[in-house]
Design brief:
mainly alpha, disordered N terminus, two-stranded antiparallel sheet
Amino acid sequence: MATDLLKTAAEFSVQGPIWSFDFFIGDYHVIISESIVVQWIVMAVLAVVFFILGRNLKVRTTSRRQMAAEYLVGLFRNMVRDTMGEKYHKYTAYIGALFCFSILNSLSSLFGFRSPTSDLSVVAAWGLVTFVLTQRNKFKTGGVKGFFKGFVEPLPFMLPFNIIGEIANPVSQTLRHFANILAGSVIGGLIYFALGQIANGLGAIGLPAILSLYFDCFSAFIQAYIFCTLTMAYVSGADCSEE
């Protein structure tokens, strides 16, 4: 049995084939990957859900739909207020959208797709947005003087270290989210593969299904929450107005 397992191990694939669409526009070769397609599907789903929740709202709550909408808005508003402070309430829409977008992208693996959050380029783009928002807030609250002052404190020779620190924040944030989702896909794939080779019956079905509740569901919520929390912490931490 061990020999057969080693022979089939070479054929093991965690995520299966990654499909894409190739287009030729003039002299340019355009590739639309599975991650891009799934993200557009997720955006369409979120747009429909938010459109339904936001229709015909009234001052006095009269429907469960409006109660659900108010609960979600209040949830993200409190999250932003507790982490960033009341002055950053305008970030509620962005943090809420990022949280929902991250979760649905991670859960897309339950429907047979490759999770876009296991694609480094996707999560790196989110980390880049966090980096831009952080630098923008530093410049907005401190001006030109405050912006550059933060790179030479507490002493001028700290300049290279402060620059590295600014770049390391979004990099670590990106790799944390990406690596955890990818690790869940790898572990889940290994479990399915191993049980498929050595076991039959309910054990080969039930155990992966139970473990997927963590790797596909619980982990998706945890990583979305951590990513959003770090985004809020980095942006609000760049506030130079009190210095």
